[in-house]
Design a protein that fits this description.
Elements lengths: L9 H11 L1 E6 L3 H17 L4 H9 L1 H4 L1 H7 L2 H11 L3 E5 L2 E4 L7 E4 L12 E7 L10 E3 L11 E3 L11 E3 L9 E3 L5 E6 L4 E3 L8 E9 L12 E6 L8 E2 L9 H17 L2
Parallel strand pairs: 13-14
Antiparallel strand pairs: 1-10, 2-12, 2-13, 3-12, 4-11, 5-10, 5-12, 6-9, 6-11, 7-8
Amino acid sequence: MTQLHSKINLEKIMLKYTQEGFVAPLDIISKDEAQLLREDLENAELELADEPEKLALLKAYPERLLPSFDQLIRNENLITAASAVLGPNLMVWSAGLFIKEKNSSKIVSWHQDLTYWGLDDDAETTCWIAISRAHADSGCMKFVPGSHKNKIVPHKDTYSEDNLLSRGQEISVKVNENDAVTAALDAGQASMHHGLLFHSSGPNTSNDRRIGSAIRYIKPSMKQESGDKPIVSLVSGKDDFGNFKIADAPKGWLAEEDFELCRQDKALKKQILL
């Protein structure tokens, strides 16, 4: 397993995260390990090519349907990084895939994650791990340092076809692009950002797919404001609160039982997400 190079100074991670709202890059897994994840994912995509409903669930719930991605969210280096800012008890609220095909115009507009999730607190961090290379030409993420201190600002829905967000959500206030920094990642590296941080990503003008998994770590003390209990994975420590339904590891590779669990959770989140 790749050693987390920033592990030698977790205080630096905490300081940068507190001041700027993000840390990047973090070495999480090797390029070879990332390639194995990619191959497993793309084999699953081929398997589901004629089943669009299941393919959509795979992209939303890779950690529920592929044992390799369940192992990824429990990766020691990711847990170490997330624990540095959230503490030892961690759940994964979601780990959906953000895929931009080669030479794609798809973008992600400026937004704050926690605007829409209906959670009662900001004790969350996203570790966005690159399964394939994510540089400026392939549409890597951009962050506005320190913007996580703004709390939630107004957003609007654009429903743009080129926006990977479900409703084309974007910040209504002006974001100065000159303030943004680019977080280029090689395959196997990750960035970690606060749920209130302004972030976006541009189109993929490269000749390869840009594949990333956005792993949302939360403290067990958090809960949905609606009182509902979507499924989560307990990946470190313990849960003393019972605010979520803790799911077991996948039953197998694209197991039907796991698809049904994802369908139920998708229906619940459709009701509770803002």
